[in-house]
Design goal:
This protein has 308 residues and is of the alpha/beta class. It folds into two domains: 260 residues, Ribonuclease Z/Hydroxyacylglutathione hydrolase-like (Metallo-beta-lactamase, Chain A, 4-Layer Sandwich); 42 residues, no CATH class. It contains nine helices and 18 strands. The strands form four sheets. The protein has a seven-stranded mixed beta sheet. A seven-stranded mixed beta sheet has the order 7-8-9-14-15-16-17. A two-stranded antiparallel sheet has the order 10-13. β16, α9 and β17 form a beta-alpha-beta unit. α2 packs across α3 and α8 packs across α9. The longest helix is centred in the N-terminal third of the chain and has 16 residues. It is globular, with a radius of gyration of 22 Å.
């Protein structure tokens, strides 16, 4: 799986080649979109990510810089004559706004639009499953912002591995014979004996985990969402110089994001959602690296692997 930060800016409107919040998670056969700020449709095109592959959108909260592009995305799908279903997981007020806006504008939605409400904020902090597709499962948990807000965690299970060395010891040649064993589950050897796939399977690798914060102050639910994530894309609106402002607006500093990532055992922290008072995320990056080394500042449109 790969991921691409489409927008790393705090603020509702694109400005000076920086765009509001959106991250694409690119999995085999489909794309999941986390937040959908204004301009996300164009950013998908610029990143050469086929928008028709988007199967689900996850909105963290109702602030415009995180959801305003959702209406345009659904309208674009209507123009595309999309037939595949689209799932939107969002706070209830966002789903109501989306449906009402589509009706008001007369946008004809011929495909199935599944609007799923995030779990109530009064629920336990433990993540709750909100979406499942093949080996991918997405979980949501309420976090601490000025309006009801959620963070998301996507876990993708890996398939059991075939023990190639053990097969070679039995005289099986890697390539055609292994492919046949994988497809059919059984292979007849030259001596007439049969071997079975289930006898040559190794335990799968641990799941690949992607976590995304949206907007929030530091909280335990966020640490749980990010637990052992391969990549954690976390808002870092401010540097420590504006810690008081961060606390007042229920946002994160880069130092706070690094502290959460360190406590959660995150393998790679990606800082994003930089306040418009900063030209880029370099100050945030320097601040976070004082605590952990495995951190980067999000660069829009870079497509990167979740695992090296």
């Amino acid at each position: 799986m790969n991921y691409c930060v489409l927008g790393n800016r705090a603020g509702a409107a694109p400005y000076n080649n920086r765009h509001p919040a959106a991250v694409a998670l690119i999995a085999p056969g489909e794309v999941l979109l986390f937040d959908c700020g204004e301009g996300s449709v164009l950013q998908l095109q610029r990143a050469s990510i086929r928008r028709g592959a988007v199967s689900a959108v996850f909105i963290t909260h109702r602030h415009a810089d995180h959801c305003l592009g959702l209406l345009g995305l659904v309208a674009a799908f209507s123009s595309d004559r999309r037939s595949d279903p689209l799932t939107v997981v969002a706070p209830p007020e966002v789903n109501i706004w989306l449906r009402d806006s589509l009706t008001t504008l007369g946008v004809s939605v011929e495909f199935e639009l599944k609007c799923i409400d995030c779990p109530s904020v009064g629920a336990a902090a433990s993540p709750v499953e909100v979406f499942c597709s093949g080996d991918m499962r997405v979980f949501a948990a309420p976090v601490d912002h000025r309006v009801p807000a959620f963070a998301f965690r996507c876990s993708m299970a890996s398939q059991p591995r075939i023990d190639i060395e053990a097969l070679e010891a039995r005289g099986v040649e890697e390539g055609v014979q292994v492919g046949r064993l994988r497809r059919e589950g059984r292979l007849t050897l030259a001596d007439g004996s049969d071997i079975f796939l289930e006898d040559f399977l190794l335990a799968p690798h641990p799941p690949t985990v992607f976590a995304y914060s949206g907007d929030t102050a530091p909280c335990e639910a966020l640490a749980e969402i990010a637990r052992d994530a391969d990549v954690f894309v976390c808002e870092a609106t401010f540097t420590a110089k504006y810690a008081e402002r961060a606390a007042h607006t229920r946002h994160m500093t880069a130092a706070a994001a690094a502290e959460i990532a360190e406590r959660a055992g995150v393998k790679q922290l990606v800082l994003t959602h930089f306040s418009t008072r900063y030209r880029d995320g370099m100050q945030h990056l320097a601040e976070a690296r004082r605590r952990i080394p495995h951190v980067t500042a999000a660069v829009e449109l870079e497509i990167l692997p979740l695992k090296p």
